[in-house]
Amino acid sequence: MSKEEILDAISALTVIELKELLDAFEEKFEVTAAAPVAVAAAGAPAGGDAGGAAEEQDEFDVILNGAGAQKIQVVKVVKDLLGVGLKDAKDLVDGAPKPLLEKVSKDDAEAAKAKLEEVGADVELK
């Protein structure tokens, strides 16, 4: 397969299938995809001066802690936010606590949190 064919096949995967592929890739090649990001993120503040600690966080993770009483409504909002199928959205909600969005802007994170809390979900930003 060419790189283009591989990328086309990957783009057709659902979020859940992509996560399973990433896990299998990490296991087969004994690597961790998140490690370089974590090292870069951890290294940046350490290299800064005292003023760097006062900087506002610019990337946020939206964590779904629970669906609350209106689970069906929460599944619909997750489906719309992530652009995934109904089954994938339900699996994500059932698996809470789960990160729904990672490394998004403050505005996007707050908007997603507001939509989810509007239908009764327990959500936090990190």
Determine the strand fraction and express it as a percent band.
Answer: 5-15%
Instruction: Kindly name the structural category.
Output: alpha+beta
| Beginning-to-end CA distance, first to last residue | 39 Å
Described by the principal axes of the CA atoms, the overall outline is globular
Share of residues in helices: 55-70%
Number of strands: 3
**What order do the helices and strands follow?**
HHHEHHEHE
List the strand order in the largest sheet: 2-1-3
Per DSSP, the total helix count is 6
- Largest sheet geometry: 3 strands, antiparallel
Radius of gyration from CA coordinates: 17 Å
Parts with pLDDT < 50 across at least 5 consecutive residues: 34-54
Q: Round the mean pLDDT to the nearest integer and report it.
A: 77
Write up what this structure looks like.
The chain has 126 residues and is an alpha+beta fold. The protein has six helices and three strands. It has helices at residues 3-11, 15-29, 35-47, 71-82, 86-94, 106-118; strands at residues 60-66, 98-104, 122-125. It has a three-stranded antiparallel β-sheet, with helices on one face. α4 (71-82) packs across α5 (86-94). The longest helix is centred in the N-terminal third of the chain and has 15 residues, at 15-29.
